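R.M. (postdoc): so does anyone remember the format we settled on? I'll just put the structure tokens first.
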């Protein structure tokens, strides 16, 4: 209902309230699906700045009306999901994320286009979305994809985000997929090596061989520092201070092949940039490896630490190295990122490290993130406290009752 104290201006749909603030309030049209009137009201421009004049308010109202009619033209009204994805969402997404992230989502886009491509954007129904969700989570035996829950969650999440963009661009009034329950990632249990398993693994490596020496250095560094895989592959020798015993983690490597890569001057998150303290064993191992690299002309400040020919190592190679030595040591095979979890387990179980210290060392944005991933590893960490508690409180009770009890007769007996 219109405020009685507001006054009109020379611009239709633009008003000024009793405090002298300008705003617009206007009908844009009627939704062709619901039949409801579409009303818009606002006090700020596209940059979130309050209007200082009726002219500014009218300028924003005119812009919004033009945008609305452009989006709701007959052509856009019939736009299919595939047209929207290929002309709007995918080009936008490609400019908004890392090249590696976009590449990792291309398969998800193909699934979405195959499923919804021919359906007009405005005709996607709750039933379509629910059936898609069920299909993603079903086994192949039951006519589904057979995907893991985490992968099904990723694809469904991409779908929801694409429709969010459609709403933001005013192609849709609301995101129909949000009427259906999201798919949770589920609990991803990432296998890791205990200290004893790690010792078995490195006992299988012959460092007399140059390439095996590199394998040893990589496994050791990942296990003893907890750095992310692409943070390790990006390390130059100038990232290590061998005298102050510090490792600078400020880069990550985006790599497709050994000859097609990019070294970014940032890590996965802003808080990922960090300095890690190194133990003496790690320092000695690095010194020996640098000396070994120097025999073939490597080991200079801007050379990769993890390299046997001047080129960086790639993730799949590290996975093969882990697999090879795990088999020789007769321990479980883990993923490359499992070495990061192994480091967290090692610090918690061997040294009962605090959440704050582990969070800083791992490059997490907050201790809450650390707890989310590693809280289960602290189970049993309070055993020492329980032992100290034993006998700490003197147990001495009264010789006879000092209260008069008038309660339940059966209890008195």
């Amino acid at each position: 209902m219109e405020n009685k104290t507001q006054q009109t201006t020379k611009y239709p749909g633009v008003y000024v309230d009793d405090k002298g603030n300008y705003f617009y309030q206007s009908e844009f049209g009627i939704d062709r699906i619901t039949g409801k009137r579409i009303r818009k009201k606002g006090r700020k421009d596209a940059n979130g700045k309050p209007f200082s004049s009726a002219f500014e308010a009218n300028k924003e109202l005119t812009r919004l009306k033009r945008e609305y009619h452009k989006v709701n033209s007959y052509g856009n009204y019939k736009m299919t999901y595939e047209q929207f994805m290929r002309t709007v969402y995918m080009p936008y997404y490609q400019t908004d994320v890392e090249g590696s992230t976009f590449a990792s989502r291309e398969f998800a886009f193909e699934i979405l286009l195959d499923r919804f491509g021919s359906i007009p954007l405005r005709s996607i129904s709750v039933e379509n979305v629910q059936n898609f969700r069920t299909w993603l989570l079903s086994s192949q035996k039951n006519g589904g994809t057979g995907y893991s829950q985490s992968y099904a969650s990723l694809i469904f999440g991409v779908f929801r985000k694409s429709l969010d963009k459609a709403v933001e661009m005013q192609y849709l009034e609301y995101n129909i997929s949000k009427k259906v329950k999201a798919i949770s990632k589920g609990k991803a249990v990432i296998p890791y090596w205990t200290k004893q398993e790690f010792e078995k693994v490195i006992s299988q490596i012959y460092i007399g061989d140059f390439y095996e020496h590199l394998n040893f250095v990589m496994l050791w560094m990942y296990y003893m520092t907890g750095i992310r895989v692409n943070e390790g592959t990006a390390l130059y020798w100038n990232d290590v201070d061998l005298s102050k015993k510090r490792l600078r983690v400020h880069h990550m490597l985006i790599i497709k092949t050994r000859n097609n890569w990019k070294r970014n001057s940032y890590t996965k998150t802003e808080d990922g940039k960090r300095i890690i303290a190194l133990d003496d064993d790690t320092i000695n191992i690095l010194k020996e490896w640098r000396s070994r690299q120097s025999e073939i002309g490597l080991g200079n400040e801007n050379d990769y630490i993890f390299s046997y020919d001047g080129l960086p190592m790639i993730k799949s190679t590290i996975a093969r190295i882990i697999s090879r030595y795990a088999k020789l040591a007769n321990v479980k095979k883990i993923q490359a990122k499992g070495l990061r979890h192994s480091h967290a387990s090692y610090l918690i179980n061997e040294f009962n490290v605090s959440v704050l210290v582990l969070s800083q060392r791992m490059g997490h944005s907050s201790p809450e993130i650390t707890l989310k991933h590693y809280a289960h590893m602290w189970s049993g960490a309070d055993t020492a406290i329980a032992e100290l508690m034993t006998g700490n409180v003197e147990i001495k009770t009264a010789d006879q009752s000092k209260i008069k009890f008038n309660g339940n007769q059966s209890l008195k007996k």
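R.M.: ...and that's the designed sequence above, right after the tokens. Also worth knowing: Residues 7-72 form one domain. The first helix runs from residue 54 to 71.
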